[in-house]
Specification:
The complex is a heterotetramer, with two copies of chain A and two copies of chain B. By secondary structure, chain A is of the alpha/beta class. Helices cover 32% and strands 25% of the residues of chain A. In chain A, the strands form three sheets. A six-stranded mixed beta sheet of chain A has the order 1-2-4-3-5-6, with helices on both faces. Chain A has a six-stranded mixed beta sheet with strand order 9-8-7-12-10-11. A two-stranded antiparallel sheet of chain A has the order 13-14. In chain A, helix 2 (84-94) crosses helix 3 (108-123), helix 4 (153-166) packs antiparallel against helix 5 and helix 6 (232-244) packs across helix 7 (266-282). The two termini of chain A are 36 Å apart. Chain B is an all-alpha fold. Chain B has helices spanning 5-21, 23-33, 38-53, 61-75, 80-93, 103-121, 131-143, 149-162, 186-206, and strands at residues 2-4, 100-102. The longest helix of chain B has 21 residues, at 186-206. Chains in contact: A-B, A-C, C-D. The A-B interface holds A 76-77, 79-86, 107-109, 112-113, 115-116, 139, 144-146, 199, 217, 219, 221-222 and B 35, 37, 40-41, 70, 73-79, 81-83, 85-86, 120-121, 169-172, 174-177. The complex binds adenosine-5'-diphosphate (2 copies) and magnesium ion (4 copies).
């Protein structure tokens, strides 16, 4: 293992401290928690937006705290859901009486902990609603599983629901637009190399030299297939193809996210993007806006994911609205 | 059967001992069909539970169990934190005013706990989770007028082992689909340790 | 080697295509070049700002093209200076009659090629001035060497000179403020792992398991010392200490950049930042603004650099001015 | 000595052959004291030079050399691109109108090339660069009324080998300070291949 850390047990504390220290004009850390909140929270007349999950996906989620996006992000231990008491702290810190909206990635742990926190908050008289993001098309949905995983598409939910909340929309309206994003966003990822857990110093899984895994999750959960590392164009084709075959994007306007898993140089993401754009162009799908970068990572995993979001007019406007979140300035 | 505040505290101490002792085994169970943290999660949580309940004075059984629940909820993490937290929270609510619990009160508490877990986890028996241990234990207690320690251990252990042949349809293990068959569910195993800890308390009292 | 690329010889072409395709509303690629320019270039009444260098440092430099920052970026082959003809294309594309200013990192190849391009442009009647950035304190300056290397501090030169040019300042005034930034910016970096050249598929250098190199350059050029990987706090101390001992920052307002070398998770950069901030705080140095992220990378090298810029009032104003460059939105 | 347009084209063809053949060696030389791309850079550049000059019709030696210069400048990259580009550009300027060059014209051209490299590189002899090959070659040509092929090769080769013991004070190698001693300079080596390619032309003409 090669990591720049101190005590592995304090990595999430240190990270949230370092983030709060980087942007003191924008955010603060709630003492004795791993919750990052907007400095001006609770913002009067506004629904509070809270997200979070296990750490290791930076800049998700604390990098998305800012005007026009999240009001708070709750950081759990690496790849481990934050506990209900932490989420409750975040909810209480951002509630201005208009209610609080939770954006949850679809992992059993996250759903259980956030739902429990929501119940505790309701018990304290705070209205809480939530949405569960399940954009990853790699692992098929079925009644037999807890459903699809939430990955990079979650960032679009943050952005669009965040912009809606910033406009002063009601809790029900924020929820409605968030659900529309979830219904219209699809992603798929792949990895070239695993990431290393700070606590154990070991790789979360193994990949042979020359081998990649398609459809892998952001915690290294199994994907669809292991095979020889393909050319960038072939990787882009496979990911985009899978996304396109899952939802009818034809004739629509889309937002594209080519997301790096952490260690992949931006150079390679632009190569993937080149091919993604040409595929969409050939299919007559109009790209409204593109995002290329590290948005939902898996520490030092190398690889990428491709996300497409089918936009309606309101989503476009909300996607373009101002955000001063450090990791998503618009 | 009659359990007082001290018995419940002792139950938690025993449970913690079992879990600390089997921490690595629990984690090993969570590797092939999970993310390999269940032992770490449970060991952290129960250590905190013991630190909490052995330093407080409680008037009611409900009060002990509420502290257990809140501690598990905030310290275990993962999926199992809110699930075990919910179990003990629901149990505690049925025992709010009780200084001792008899067999009927205990059955009511266990049933509430099981229902809470099912609701929280949107799960039922047969999905290869902790429920597959809790459910047979609840049934045993319901159907037996005075549960013996060895019966309790046997039932919990057999139930845990049965999860080996099950196909997981809830939790992380569900992502492994058919590959989940052939492995004992980690949450079922830790539930077994919790009930065998209770059996030790019953045994002591009978001696 | 595990990389998502197509033909290794076309990696820079593909990358610049993919970047232009990502931000078509902001930038375009000059056909048959690897030059990215602002869509609205040449901007009337404005000095044109051009930078560039070898590829492999993404988002530098094409990610910094945008309103308020660069007018054009020239991408050479990986770790190889762009050629004078390419730089000349960029100069011609951004010249609106007010002259063109070049920001050059201090590498012999870059200096030679950009100077040669400047002469060719002057021969065509375009006024050209330049600054050479040499912020890396690791390798000592002396008359015997070509001087210190230019690394992440270059991004502050882009930002501040870019904002000045955007205000309509003269070529001489843009040059003056750029030189002031160069005089007041210092950096130092380190690496945990090497990067892999796309052409050869091999690591540029070797580092043993458990070993790091302090003072390393952004092409893997030798640093000061190899030693066991230290704790994040010790790394932050060493880098910051070296920077602080090179220039008197006491009592001043500074901009901080904690820059990732490419593969390092943002989590670790925040750990480094936590310590950097506490060191500066203890020394009574006031942090005006902090930037944490991948700004000047070395492909998939793991590691980081710390940059401090001593600010005067004008620099602060220019640093805070709007920029819509994809990799530096303010 | 008299070189016409075809001889100059042949010089470039020979130079390219030498460089392609020794591409990996040149790169290897650039590894310990540079960034390991010199062979790749030069091979790319001279391939383009040959593609260019063997498909064009030229009236003057200056015209060939100008195309050589512009091609090297735009195709080699790195530090060596503008340096070799400058060398051939300066040489071409002294031969603009010449259909053949005699020994005096060639010496003037070489001298202009060397001066151009020194100016562009802000460097002088003894700094462990290509200059350390060009300078002795210029001196040899100046001091010998009719340079023989073998003399030219020997001088260039000896000069290249001498760079091994030098301390680099210019270019990337300068960052390696004392550690640069003990390695032949890659630009000196490629300059040697260029001059040995010229020697082959002289040899052919003498046969
Ligand atoms: N939906 C659910 N309902 C009931 N129990 C569940 C559910 N999901 C997970 N579990 C239990 O939780 C255990 C895993 O706990 P743990 O490893 O601590 O959490 P995580 O899966 O978040 O890492 C499983 O072995 C299973 O018994
Ligand atoms: N300032 C200079 N003056 C003369 N020659 C130089 C100078 N800098 C570098 N060189 C020559 O260029 C060679 C390196 O060329 P190359 O590897 O192609 O470029 P780069 O160093 O940019 O990768 C050196 O071996 C040296 O001969
Ligand atoms: Mg687990
Ligand atoms: Mg877990
Ligand atoms: Mg080079
Ligand atoms: Mg080189």
């Amino acid at each position: 293992m090669k990591k720049m850390i101190n005590d592995p047990d304090r990595v999430v504390q240190d990270m949230t401290d370092g983030l709060a220290a980087a942007y003191p004009d924008k955010v603060r850390k709630i003492p004795d928690t791993t919750v990052i909140v907007r400095n001006d929270a609770p913002v009067g007349g506004k629904v509070g937006l809270v997200s979070g999950g296990g750490s290791g996906h930076e800049p998700a989620h604390a990098g998305y705290v800012g005007r026009g996006m999240l009001d708070a992000a709750v950081a759990g231990e690496v790849f481990t859901s934050p506990t209900p008491d932490q989420v409750l702290e975040a909810i209480k810190a951002v509630d201005a009486g208009e209610g609080v909206f939770l954006v949850i990635k679809n992992y059993t742990g996250d759903v259980l902990n956030f739902e429990m926190a929501a119940e505790l908050a309701e018990a304290e008289g705070i209205s809480v609603e939530h949405v569960v993001v399940n954009d990853d098309v790699a692992v098929e949905d079925s009644t037999a599983t807890t459903g699809r995983r939430g990955i990079a598409g979650t960032v679009f939910v943050h952005k669009i629901a965040g912009a809606k909340a910033e406009q002063g929309a009601s809790l029900a309206d924020v929820k409605a637009v968030a659900e529309r994003v979830v219904a219209n966003v699809r992603s798929m990822g792949m990895a070239l190399t695993p990431c290393v857990m700070p606590a154990s110093g070991k790789a979360g899984f193994e990949l042979e030299e020359g081998e990649m895994e398609v459809g892998i999750g952001i915690h290294g959960e199994p994907g669809i297939e292991r095979k020889p590392v393909a050319r960038a164009d072939a990787i882009a084709e496979e990911l985009t193809g899978k996304v396109l075959s899952d939802l009818d994007f034809s004739g629509s306007d889309v937002a594209v996210m080519v997301n790096g898993m952490g260690a992949t140089p931006e150079m390679e993401l632009f190569l993937i993007n080149k091919k993604v754009q040409s595929i969409l162009h050939d299919k007559g799908i109009h790209v409204y806006r593109t995002f290329v970068g590290d948005y939902m990572t898996s520490m030092e995993m190398a690889g990428c994911s491709v996300t497409l979001l089918k936009l309606d007019e309101e989503m476009k406007e909300l996607l373009d609205a101002t955000s001063d979140a450090p990791a998503f300035r618009i | 059967m009659e359990l007082n505040v001290d018995d419940i505290v002792q139950w938690m101490i025993n449970a913690n001992d079992n879990i600390q002792e089997n921490k690595d085994d629990l984690t090993t169970l969570d590797q092939p069909i999970g993310d390999g943290d269940h032992g770490i999660n449970m060991a952290r949580g129960f250590q905190e539970v013991v630190a909490k309940v052995s330093n407080e004075h409680y008037d009611t059984v409900g009060a002990v169990l509420k502290d257990v629940a809140v501690t598990l909820m905030s310290k275990v993490g993962g999926a199992s934190g809110p699930l075990f937290g919910t179990a003990f929270l629901q149990m505690s609510m049925t025992m709010k005013a009780l200084t001792t619990v008899d067999r009927d009160a205990f059955v009511r508490g266990l049933t509430a706990a099981l229902d809470g877990v099912k609701q929280r986890g949107k799960a039922d028996a047969g999905e290869k989770t902790m429920i597959d241990v809790w459910q047979p234990v609840v049934t045993l207690c319901k159907e037996t007028s005075d549960v013996r320690a060895d019966e309790l251990v046997q039932t919990a252990q057999a139930a845990m082992e049965k999860t080996k042949d099950m196909l997981a349809t809830k939790g992380r293990a569900a992502y492994f689909k058919e590959k989940s068959i052939g492995h004992i569910d980690p949450g079922a195993a830790s539930s077994y340790y919790i009930f065998s800890a209770l059996a030790e308390v019953l045994q002591e009292k009978n001696e």
